Amino acid sequence: MSSTVRADAARSRERILAVAKGRDAAELRLNDIARDAGVGVGTVYRHFPNVRALVEALSVESLRRLNEAAEAATREADAVVALRRFLADALALQLSDSGLQAVLVDLERSDPIVHSECTAARAQVSAGFGAVLVRAQATGAVRADLSAAQLQRLVCGVEHAVRLGSPADQQLLLDILIAGIRA
Predict the structure, then answer these.
(1) pLDDT over 90 for what percent of the chain?
(2) pLDDT for the residue 99
(3) Does the N-terminal or the C-terminal CB of the chain have fewer CB atoms within 10 Å?
(4) Is the pLDDT of residue 58 over 70?
(5) 49: closest CA among 33, 63, 30?
(6) Where is the HTH tetR-type domain positioned along the sequence (predicted)?
(7) What is the reported pLDDT for 56?
(8) Is pLDDT at 59 greater than 90 in this prediction?
(9) What contacts 24+ positions apart, CB below 8 Å, involve 138-146?
(10) What are phi and psi of 155, to 5 degrees?
């Protein structure tokens, strides 16, 4: 019986995530998600005690893809090309996942007990930002006084600027970011 209960719980969790995926993170309401997923509100709260936990769960795949982008950047022969490609990938992922920015930069609100998978993925992403940045700094092409955390916040700023403006601004603003971090 317990395996049936676990299978039902897994199906409910997947249904909840499927309903929530693609919705603006700022607009997520657990009661609405429960209704649209066809599950009880208690079921949603058992899986996701708050909206933050749901946003983290939704962002795990984006964090994995961001980590893959960092790994690909470390394999790129030219460190500056690698940094540019990585920042473009990071920006694109953040624009496609409305909750990713909060998951990346709002560390104080993160509860590793609520969502340890997200915490581990975020740690890998932070390390990836660091590895790509340090490599570009070692070539002398990027400011030595820039930290990985600052770079991450700069990408979030560009994301915010694109959301306020137009998707057509994405490339221009990324070019300006790259120009601004040059040594």
Answers:
(1) 58
(2) 84
(3) N
(4) yes
(5) 30
(6) 6-66
(7) 85
(8) no
(9) 138/79, 139/79, 139/80, 140/183, 141/79, 141/80, 141/83, 141/182, 141/183, 142/80, 142/83, 142/181, 142/182, 142/183, 143/181, 143/182, 143/183, 144/183, 146/181
(10) -65, -40
Residue 85 shares a structural domain with residue 129: yes
DSSP 112: T
pTM: 0.81
Contacts 24+ apart (CB under 8 A), 153-156: 153/105, 154/180, 154/181, 155/87, 155/90, 155/91, 155/94, 156/94, 156/101, 156/104, 156/105
Q: What average pLDDT does the segment 105-129 reach?
A: 73
Rounded CA gap, 36 and 105, in Å? 29
Query: Is 127 found in the same domain as 59?
Result: yes
Report the share of the chain in percent with pLDDT over 70.
Answer: 92
> From CA 116, how far away is CA 78, in angstroms rounded?
34
Cβ neighbours for 17, distance < 8 A, ≥ 6 positions apart: 54, 57, 58
161 and 96 in a common domain: yes
Which of 13-27, 55-69, 115-129, 131-145 is predicted with the least confidence, judged by mean pLDDT? 115-129
How is residue 25 written in tokens? 């993170």
